[in-house]
Design brief:
The structure is a single chain. By secondary structure, this protein is of the alpha/beta class. Helices cover 54% and strands 12% of the residues. The strands form 4 sheets. It has a 5-stranded mixed β-sheet with strand order 9-12-13-11-10, sandwiched between helices. The radius of gyration is 30 Å and the shape is globular.
């Protein structure tokens, strides 16, 4: 019986790396325990040609000698001898036993039953305590009686659901839960939620089924939910209607009676996982709650204060955030965890939005006094990505000069064609003849599009096009305007700001050494270094791939700059090992390219091969080449 090893095997990939932190969050254990489990998997898998390889800064990846090797290993892990035969299985068994057993159990009895020594069992108990602490459940020890668990019924149910039922481990061999019963329950819930046009994602539906099923089993054993505050049936009216019908059908099916508090328990989960806006009825009934709207404004204000990205006036984003906050408010208050099945893809495709979502998470954690999961942060990042995309429509507009040698009438016609074809990309269009070029102020434009040869030196890119703007010309012009200017990168990244072999045994020493160089090149405001340290204390700034991006928690400098430092030695930053540091500071002046800077920079952080090459070459030109390649490819 090696349930956790099988679960790790399911999570690992043969094509992508996963960190110990990601595995720990998935399994609800510590990274240290994850590494111990990976060693066990390595030992078991070796004889089948399956191994787990690690790469510094990226994590672990699965390596096999063929598909049959995996099949054989799964068969090994599926076998059971009736008793747990590994540390992981022993921990799961003990956890399941304590969660499903009423009263005290003596240590000696558990040792005899599991055929292990007292010290071995104590190690398993400590691992169980680590898991239970995440649910505010304690193991109580009483002399001459043994051990038992103590915690709120709400948290005990959540623990059972998340640690066993929802992870397909069921009951670690205790035969308490049934897949057949879960299937019957799913049919009832699907029918009634469909009847009320109650929108749920697939992950949310599974979460609801799990918790209702656990509740049924707990009620049958005499463990009921009690709420100290009376319920208001007028609030969440649809949820109450669905919950009452569910209670009626499930109660009749299982032979149990639902109290008002048990129905309210279902309402809480229904309200916490519902997709608002999924139907016309939702859109018509949605009411903005003042306290949640203020919280949304606080998050958008925090983004502006730290990154100078203006999203506060985006009405659509604000409304989307308000709708999202209604169920999220329930989930945070009642510790309802939902998984985000596309979190990895979100991080991959919306790196900058994830960075902003991290700031939102800090605001939420301060407001609620509770931790907010990375899964929830991923959902916020999707909303922010949409808002950033709307911003990008204005940010990427360019001013151009069209040079035409065919007379004023043809010039007007060409200008009209550019306005018709590329109006969404253009701020302003100037038109002149080739003879007028020496008098033109090129600071007004980003590009020159010309129908005639230009022999003089021009300080902006020149693109040659035909007189009649044919299809090939339209494709060429549009690709240039969509890509935007690349020289904006030079405003942020400069050769003298690229540092190599920066020393430091920890992140504080590295930051101080980088800031010392900055102070030699420009005037830093008083308290700048401490402001960077304060931001580090608030939340992580390391991205994986051996990259960190420390910055002050607020705007402090008169100009925007970024210093890139390749460290002399790799150090542990906070969550990941780091070899290259991007220390950034943003000024208070309006900067139309700031969002592009963040977007390109954070996309670079995800390109492990590019980062490895920059670190290896220790070259400013290699850095700029990588950044420009990111621009061209997106």
């Amino acid at each position: 019986m090696r349930g956790d090893l099988k679960e790790i095997l399911n999570f690992l990939s043969e094509t992508e790396y996963h960190t110990a932190v990601e595995l720990a969050e998935y399994l609800h254990i510590s990274p240290k325990t994850v590494r111990n489990r990976l060693k066990e998997l390595q030992d078991v898998g070796r004889k089948y040609g399956v191994s787990v390889e690690s790469r510094s800064g990226q994590g672990f990846i699965l390596c096999t000698d063929g598909e049959q090797c995996l099949t054989d290993l799964y068969q090994e892990l599926d076998q059971t001898d009736g008793l747990p035969n590994s540390n992981a299985d022993r921990t799961n068994y003990l956890l399941a036993y304590l969660l499903n057993h009423d009263g005290y159990t003596k240590i000696e009895e558990l040792c005899d039953f599991l055929c292990v020594s007292r010290s071995t069992l104590q190690n398993s108990i400590h691992e169980v305590e680590e898991i239970l602490s995440g649910y505010k459940i304690a193991i109580v020890r009483k002399p001459n009686y043994g051990i038992c668990i103590d915690g709120e019924e709400f948290e005990i149910r959540r623990c059972i659901g998340e640690c066993f039922v929802s992870r397909n481990m069921m009951d670690a061999g205790l035969k308490v839960y049934s897949t057949e019963e879960l299937s019957c329950l799913a049919e009832i819930v699907l029918r009634l939620t469909g009847k009320h046009r109650f929108s749920l994602s697939e992950a949310a539906f599974e979460k609801l089924i799990t918790q209702i099923y656990v509740a049924v089993k707990r009620i049958r054993r005499g463990h009921s939910i009690c709420f100290s505050i009376p319920a208001d049936p007028k609030k969440y009216a649809v949820e109450w209607s669905v919950a009452r019908e569910l209670a009626g059908e499930i109660g009749q099916w299982q032979g149990i009676a639902y109290t008002e508090d048990e129905i309210r328990y279902m309402v809480i989960y229904l309200a916490g996982i519902r997709i608002l806006g999924g139907t016309e009825q939702d859109a018509g009934n949605f009411v903005i709650r003042e306290e949640l709207d203020q919280l949304v404004l606080d998050m958008l204000e925090a983004i502006y204060e730290e990154y100078r990205i203006e999203l506060r006036n985006n009405f659509n984003l604000r409304m989307s955030f308000n709708q999202h906050m209604v169920p999220l408010d329930i989930r945070i208050r009642y510790h309802i965890k939902i998984t985000n099945p596309i979190l990895h893809e979100i991080r991959r495709n919306y790196a900058f939005a994830c960075m902003l979502a991290e700031k939102c998470r800090m605001v939420l954690e301060q407001y609620y006094g509770e931790s907010v999961s990375e899964d929830e942060m991923g959902y916020l990042a999707v909303l922010l990505a949409l808002g950033l995309e709307q911003n990008a429509i204005d940010i990427h507009k360019s001013s151009i000069l069209v040079v035409c040698g065919a007379g004023r009438g043809s010039s007007r016609m060409l200008r009209y064609k550019y306005e018709q074809e590329f109006g969404a990309y253009l701020e302003k269009i100037y038109v002149c003849g080739g003879h007028e070029l020496p008098l033109f102020d090129f600071q007004l434009v980003d590009y020159v599009f010309t129908t005639v040869p230009i022999h003089q030196k021009v300080p902006v890119p020149i693109i040659e096009v035909g007189h009649f703007l044919e299809r090939a010309d339209i494709v060429k012009v549009k690709s240039v305007l969509e890509r935007g200017k690349l020289d904006f990168l030079d405003e942020y990244y400069r050769a003298e700001q690229f540092l190599v072999d920066v020393e430091g045994d920890n992140r504080e020493e590295v930051i101080e050494n980088i800031c010392r160089v900055i102070g030699q090149q420009r005037c830093l405001p008083e308290g700048f270094v401490e402001a960077v340290f304060q931001r580090e204390r608030l939340a992580q700034t390391d991205f994986g791939n051996r990259i960190a991006m420390p910055h002050p928690y607020k705007v402090m400098t008169d100009e925007t700059f970024v210093y890139v430092a390749v460290l002399k030695q790799e150090i542990f930053w906070g969550k990941y090992p780091v070899k290259m540091v991007f220390l950034a500071a943003i000024c208070d002046r309006e900067d139309r390219n700031l969002q592009r800077f963040y977007d390109v920079t954070t996309r670079l952080f995800l390109e492990a091969d590019m980062i490895d090459r920059i670190i290896e070459k220790k070259s400013y030109s290699v850095l700029m080449q990588a950044l420009r390649q990111i621009c061209y490819s997106h």
